Structures are given as C-alpha cells and as structure tokens.
Amino acid sequence: MTRPNILYMIFFEFIQTRVFLKNLLFAVLISALLITLVLSTLKWYTHHGESVKVPSLIGLTPEQIDQLETISNFEVIVVDSVFDSRQPKGSVIIQDPVPGSSVKLHRKIYLTTVSVMPEKVSMPNLVDLTLRQAGATLETYNLVLGNIMYVPDIAENAVLAQFYKGHEIEPGTSILKGSVISLRVGQRMGNGRYQVPFLIGKTHNQAQQLLSKYYLNMGEEVFENNADPATALIYSQSPSFVKGLMLNAGQTVNLVYKSPHDFDFDAYLETMGADTLSVESDTIN
Asked: Same domain for 110 and 124?
C-alpha cells in the first residue's frame, strides 16, 4: 500500500473519532455564538430598524433649539452663517437633513444660521454710472438704494455723487451689508418741471420708481400705527396730486403710509372718483 493511501486512511479514521466530532461541534457552537454576538452589537450600535423624524429648525435660534424635547435624539452642528437682514440674527435658514426626513437616532443635523454681526463690503464706485447700473451694482454688493437727489447737469441720469448717512462716501470704504446708499443724479436739461405723480395706494418701492421717473425726490415718510414699511401703502401725499401741478426737478414729496390690514384702500380709491384715477393712469403710463 502506498504512503498517500495510508495517510488518507488515518485521516478518515480520525475524523470519525469522538474527539474530533466533539471538537468540531464545539467550534461550530462557538462560531455561531460569536456571529450572533457581533450582529447584535452592530444592530445596537447602528440602531438598525430604528428611525426618528427630523424636526423643523428653520427660523429658530440656538436657545430655542436647546429647549426642544426631541433635540436630544440628534447632534446639531452649525457649519456656516450668512448675512440676511430680513431674518432674525442667529436664526436657522438652512438645515440638512430637511425637516420631516426619517433618520437614525443621534444623526447629525447641519445648520446654516443668520450671522449675528453683518458682513462688511467695500463701497463700490458708482460715480458716472447710470442710475440703472448703480442700482444693479448696489444690489450685487448687498447694499440698498436710498434717496435719489436730482440736480441740473449735462450728464443726464448719471450718478454724480454717493452718500452714506448724509455724508459723501469714498469708493473702497468698508461698510456693513444692507447699508442704505443715497445718490445725487444729474437731470436732463430743459425747463426742469414735472407733473406730480399720483402715489395713493402705492408701496414705498413703487413710489420711489414713479418719483424717479419724474426726477422728484422722496421726502419725509410717516408710517402710522407702526405699519410695516415692506407692505404699507401710501394714504396721503404732499403736495397732493392735481392735474397740471408741476414741481421743479429735485423737489421732494412727503408721504404718509397705512397698513392695508387696517385700512380699506380699494374703497378709499373709489371715493376719489373715476376722473382722478383716469388722470393718474395717464400720468404714470
């Protein structure tokens, strides 16, 4: 009998012994126990099959977030802050994952908040730009176009000077985003007299556009009962609209605003009569 055959017979006899079978059974049991333990540990560690809904944190400040009962289920991380003058400082404007998402316990929620301190920008040079170009440039720099002062000049509709808080501001000056910039703009040559536009029922922005069209300036603005400047409508103007009433270019028109929630502007405009509204339409078109 050859040597390989002898070894084969010895091996075959050995695997049939009680010692081998006992050890094999013991190894299988230990392996099964280890696999079960590992899977159970992974399930506990990863919270397999468990999920929670992501709450909406948009508009909340860090202090308000800490008071939420379910916030302990998550890890909140602020990753960025941006300037936005329309939102409360420190409030959340973007979150990831989005509200309502189903995620595992202790999932990280990444937040972008409104910066507490506004960012600064370098004042652009608006001189010699047209009024339209200057407005677009201010918007690009997150600055706000304020009062427009028209003066006689051969450079029609061109910016002659730029002002911040009543003082001329040099290009390159560091100022806060959202700052209001007023402009001095050249008016076209001629008699320089323009019809007073009808502004009742208009918003601040609409009034600004109409006054600019007729080379007139925004004067004093009064918001009655703390009306919101963003939605308030003009209740009265001085000088009042009268067909044929002309003002010199650069003169001001004073305005009083009321909230559309506190006053029925539709009924108010109807009381002014169809003739007035018809003239107003002809004037501003």
From this structure: no
